[in-house]
């Protein structure tokens, strides 16, 4: 039974990543209207007759999301029954499924009635919460036989502030990035690092403000994670899960910054843009794991 639950949890975690990338692909290819304004049918048909590139992208995303929803529900029920005695399992099971359903409903509402760019930008962030919850649920499932041991950590108040603050701020950065995509402001400032075409080096219109706001927010999260890693290097090298989590976070945030710049330089290369979405998802997952550790730490250093 444990082996089956572990296998399912890994499959569901990967499926949630596919949902995140699929949603990013839909946005970046402009395929949101690939099935017209009908949902869950495609152009009012169960089997579409007029196949287009946008339709294939949108329909594939819907099918993956639907299949993943069934798998997430199965994982949540199974984990609830088998491991419900563990403190975090039931809340994470509920959050995983609830936010997956919520992102599906927002997506359906956007198809049928349309939504503002500000609301659509929430879609990726909501999916990210569902992914992170499934990831933590997977780690807890493996933790049962001590492959992941989150109870042995001792975290001080300074480190806890870094953990809680950075994950909340990273979510804000994610939202600003999603807003850039939905406002089609990715090339509003085609130069790096500033809007050199703007008077006085300041953004000249709303799209440039959105783009530069995201760049500024992304720079600050890089600095924050670097500071947190230095703190971990000085005080937590004996606690490998803390130290290596921050090291991985630093590598990921560096890759995120580089991929973001390359997206602009290459004028929205699709592969780089999807890599950008993947890296921020993995970074949020690592910070979520650190948050789990922080909530379990009873003592301080």
Describe the structure.
The protein is mainly alpha-helical and 301 residues long. The protein is built from 8 helices and no strands. The chain has helices at residues 2-28, 53-83, 89-112, 117-143, 157-182, 206-235, 240-265, 270-296. 40% of the residues are buried. It is found in: Cell membrane; Membrane.
Write the layout of secondary structure elements.
Blueprint: H1 2-28, H2 53-83, H3 89-112, H4 117-143, H5 157-182, H6 206-235, H7 240-265, H8 270-296
Keywords:
flat; 301 residues; mainly alpha; metal-binding; Heme A synthase; 2 domains; oxidoreductase
Tell me the major beta sheet. Answer: none
Following the backbone from N to C, one meets helices and strands in this order, namely HHHHHHHH
Give the fraction of residues assigned to helices: over 70%
Span of the ends, CA to CA: 38 Å
Q: Roughly what is the average pLDDT, rounded to an integer?
A: 86
- Supply the number of helical segments: 8
Q: Outline, from the CA principal axes?
A: flat
How many strand units? 0
Estimated radius of gyration: 20 Å
Binding site for heme: 214, 276
Transmembrane segments: 63-83, 92-114, 120-142, 163-180, 212-230, 242-264, 270-292
Main location: membrane
Cofactor: heme b
